[in-house]
Amino acid sequence: MALNHQRHTDKWWETEYSDNIHSYLQYHEVKWRMVYGARSPQIHLRPVLLKTIRNIAKTCEMSNVCVHLAVTLMDLFMDNHDLKFDTIMLVSFACLTLAAKIEEHCLKIPKLNTMQNVISKDVTNSHFRKVEMKILMFFEFNVAVPTVAHFIEFYKDHFYCDSDFYHNEFASILKDKFNRMILSYQDASLESIKLISYNPSMVAASIILTTRHSLGLVPCWTAQLRKVTGYLKKDLVQCCSLLGRNVMQHRKFLPIDEGYLSSSPRFQSPIIMASKKKRSHIDVPNVILSKRTAF
Predict the structure, then answer these.
(1) What pLDDT score was predicted for residue 114?
(2) What is the 3-state secondary structure (H, E, C) of the chain?
(3) Which of 237, 231, 238, 228 is nearest to 267 (CA)?
(4) pTM
(5) pLDDT value at position 131?
(6) Mean pLDDT per 10-residue section of the chain, whose length is 295 residues
(7) How far apart are CA 124 and CA 220, in angstroms?
(8) Residue 241 to residue 209: CA distance in whole angstroms
(9) What distance in Å separates the CA atoms of residue 74 and residue 94, rounded to the nearest whole number?
(10) What would you report as the CA-atom Rg of the chain, rounded to the nearest whole angstrom?
């Protein structure tokens, strides 16, 4: 699944195959994703890891889709492994580099020296590649998966229509505010571990519904959005509630981050159900020299 929007002239969501691609992404998000149990002993470090990924992505001018993919890989890998404290930052960085190799131009893939201030200076490129390989092997080399940001890109042409701002002299201001709120809610969706258990397409649709409701657009869920996303308004209520609750809890930590670039079959249940990987503790000798060890 090549979804590097900056790498191609044509945007996949504007082609004649967009509907087929969207259907495949919705199928793939259910088939691929694992059950998330929030079982990682290091889950309390997740906010720090998330902030680190965002900061590096901003410095390297990465897209939102890259950040979301990196966080997805990190969350699921952490959930199924007991990672040693000194290694967890290295694993999060490896998830980011793997995501960048899929979503970004090669010049934007971060180098190991980017992380030298937070990981051991004894970590070499060879050692780091072994960590990347362990992650790839865990996911059976299938790491190009759809995320919330991917679906937001597909839905963006249907966020609103001109009739939503009819006779409004501040239409351009409202549209700009709408787009900024979408980015804010996207960031908010990364903060909540409860939203990880929902299909990314559902979270993306809920972000749009929540934004339209917040701005007082009527109707808050249009027939076009229902057709494009495949979701009824009632399907999104629970997810919207979690999203709104998370925004209220983290409001003071949610400025709009201009550092990110815009990249830019229906289900019986909104909750993802897939095969569960066995949780394990991995010890890879000699992956990192000195007192630090890899897993």
Answers:
(1) 76
(2) CCCCCCCCCCCHHHCCCHHHHHHHHHHHHHHHCCCCCCCCCCHHHHHHHHHHHHHHHHHCCCEHHHHHHHHHHHHHHHHCECCCHHHHHHHHHHHHHHHHHHHCCHHHCCCHHHHCCCCCCCCCHHHHHHHHHHHHHHCCCCCCCCCHHHHHHHHHHHCCCHHHHCCCCCHHHHHHHHHHHHHHHHHHHHHCCHHHHECHHHHHHHHHHHHHHHCCCCCCCCHHHHHHHCCCHHHHHHHHHHHHHHHHHCHHHCCCCCCCECCCCCCCCCECCCCCCCCECCCCCCCCCCCCCCC
(3) 231
(4) 0.79
(5) 93
(6) 43 66 86 86 93 91 94 95 85 94 88 75 85 95 93 90 74 87 93 92 95 90 93 94 75 44 34 37 34 39
(7) 52
(8) 11
(9) 9
(10) 19
122 in Cβ contact with 159 (< 8 Å) = no
Please give the pLDDT value at position 45: 93
What is the rounded distance in angstroms from the CA atom of residue 59 to the CA atom of residue 110? 9
Please provide the size of the chain in residues: 295
Within 13 Å, how many C-alpha atoms sit on residue 188's CB side?
A: 30
**Close Cβ partners of 35 (under 8 Å, ≥ 6 residues apart):** 197, 272, 273, 274, 275, 276
Amino acid at 197: S
CB 79 within 8 A of CB 39: yes
